[in-house]
Amino acid sequence: MDDLILKRISDLIADHSGLYVRPQDFQLLSDKVWLRAKALGLTTLADYHDYLKALDYSSRGLDSFKARPSLPQQQSEWQELYSILTINESYFFRDSNQLRLLSDRLLPEIMQRKQAAAPLGSKPSLRIWSAGCSTGEELYSIAIALDQLNFAWHQWDVQLIGTDISAAAVHSARQGLYSSWSFRQTPAALQQTYFQVDRQAYRICDRLQQHVVFEVGNLLKDPCPNFGQGPGGLDLILCRNVFIYLDRQAIGQIIRKFHGALIPQGYLLTGHTELYGQNTSPFEVTSFPETVVYQKPPQTVLPLPTASLPAAQWQSTASPQPLRLAPKAASPSVDASLDDSLTAALQAATTFLQQNDYTSAIRTAKQLYLTHPDCTAAHQIAARAYANTGCYSQAKQLCQRVIRDHPLSLDMHYLLAQIAEDENDLEIAKEHLRKIIYLDPDFVKAYLDLASIYARARQPEKAKTTREHALTLLAKLPPSTVLDDHSDATVAQWQAHLKQQIAGGDRQSPQE
Question: Distance between CA 476 and CA 291 in Å, rounded?
Answer without folding.
Answer: 37
